[in-house]
Amino acid sequence: MSLKELEALLESKKEVQEAFVKAMYRGKALEGTATESEQYYTKKLLEGAKEVKAEMAAISKAIGEKLFGSWKKPTGLP
Fold first, then answer.
1. CA-to-CA distance for 47 and 52, rounded, in angstroms?
2. For the chain, which terminus, N or C, has the lower number of CB atoms within 10 Å?
3. Whose CA is closest to 5, among 47, 63, 58, 74?
4. Residues in Cβ contact with 53 at an 8 Å cutoff, skipping those fewer than 6 apart
5. How many CB atoms lie within 10 A of CB 62?
6. What are the pLDDT digits (tens) for 15-57?
7. How does DSSP assign 1-61, residue by residue?
């Protein structure tokens, strides 16, 4: 993928992540008063948010590698 494609993909994932965060806060507001279906829905959203976060990390890493090449931690430094 090109750098532009990776950046566009990352941006689309950010929008999805924002929707998950909003839903999470809504779920927190319902805590204690939420119905069983609302609890299930919130749980599924949180699981989806974790998946999107992992995808975003992988995309960010790919962008970094395209910009700076692969990076390895130097050894033998104090």
1. 9
2. C
3. 63
4. 17
5. 15
6. 888 877 777 777 666 667 777 887 787 778 778 878 888 888 8
7. --HHHHHHHHHHHHHHHHHHHHHHHHHHHHTTT--HHHHHHHHHHHHHHHHHHHHHHHHHH
